[in-house]
Amino acid sequence: GTAIKASSWSLYLLVEIAASPAIQAIPTVSSAVQHQDQKALAKALCDIATSLRCAKEYFMRMRDFVDPE
Predict the structure, then answer these.
(1) DSSP state letter for 65
(2) Mean pLDDT of the chain
(3) Residue 1 DSSP label
(4) In-domain check, residue 23
(5) 19, 52 contact by CB (below 8 A)
(6) Better pLDDT: 3 or 46
(7) Is residue 27 pLDDT above 50, yes or no?
(8) Handedness of CA 60, 62, 65, 69 (dihedral sign)
(9) How many domains are contained in the chain?
(10) Of residues 4 and 59, which shows the higher confidence score?
(11) Residue 37 pLDDT > 80, yes or no?
């Protein structure tokens, strides 16, 4: 019912929030590549990986709330 729908929307929001640092890091990656700054690039890529792992954890929980049909 409504509680399940609210929970699934909460998970969608959590996925978006968790993924947003990855999106925000894209300009840093671009700049680091342009300036050949390996340290900044490594940190930005690490931040992206962490963000996407977190988003994936929330995304995997959606199966509990979303009917694939």
Answers:
(1) T
(2) 87
(3) -
(4) yes
(5) yes
(6) 46
(7) yes
(8) negative
(9) 1
(10) 59
(11) yes
Q: In one letter, which amino acid is 35? A: H
Quote the tokens at residue 31: 């700049």
Hunting for tokens 């994936």 — which residue is that?
Answer: 56
26-37 b/e with 16+ CB inside 10 Å = b?
Answer: eebbeebeeeee
CA 51 to CA 3: how far, in whole Å?
Answer: 27
Residue 69: inside a domain: no
What is the pLDDT, as a whole number, of residue 1? 47
Number of residues written out for the chain: 69
3-class DSSP assignment, residue 27 = helix
Residue 18 in tokens: 């968790």
Task: Look up the domain containing 21 and give its range.
Answer: 2-64
CB 28 within 8 A of CB 40: yes
